[in-house]
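User: Sequence in, structure out. Go.
Assistant: Echoing your sequence, followed by the C-alpha cells.
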Amino acid sequence: MIRTTLSLGVSLLLLFVSSCNSPGDSEQSQEDILHPLVNNTEAEKLTFYLGLKEFRQTDSSIVYHASALYQEDTVGLQVEILKDIPEGIDGQGEPIEDQAFVEGGMIFSSLGQESDKFVHALQELFDEPAEEALKDFKVEPLVFSSNNRKVDLEKQATYSFKLFVFNSYGAEAELFATVDTYKKALMITEKDSVYRKNLLSAFIDE
C-alpha cells in the first residue's frame, strides 16, 4: 500500500513538472537566446546579426531592442523602423524615383551601456582605436528600399534596404540591411570596408 502511494505521488510530480515545461516556455527561451554579433570576424565585409525584440509601437513605427553577443558581453541598440515603407523598385527591378528613398525609415539610438559596448565592439572588429560613443547618439541614415512590395512589419517576411549613414568624417557610410520579421532579426552588411571610419564617426563624433 505504501509503495503504491509513493508511485502515485511520483507520477503526479512528474506530471506537474511536465506541465510546467510547456512548449510555450521553450519558445520563449529560444527567443531570448543571443546570437553572436559576427559569425566570421575574418571576412572582408562583415555582417552583423542582431536579434529583434519589440519595445513598443507608435502610430507610424515599431521600436525594437536589437541585441547580440560579442565575446561575453550583450551589445545592442534601439532600432526604430517605419511600419509602412513603400516599395522602392518596380517589377523590372528599376528604382521608383519618387519613393525609393525614405528619410527616417530606420533610426538607431543609444540604450546606454549596452550601446557603448556595441560601439566598442565595432572599433575592435574594425581594428580602430577605442573612443567613447556619444552619450545619446541618434543615427538616422537615408534608407533606400530594395523591395518591390510595400514593407509591412506586422507580417512575417524578409525586407532588404540600403543605408546611407551620414557622419562627420566624410562620405556617407554605405551598408546593406535585411529585416527578417519571421526570425525577428536584423542583419547589416558592409558594402565596403573603406567606410569603417565613416560609420564609427556617426556614433562617436558630434
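User: And one key feature?
Assistant: The chain has two domains: 1-30, 34-204.
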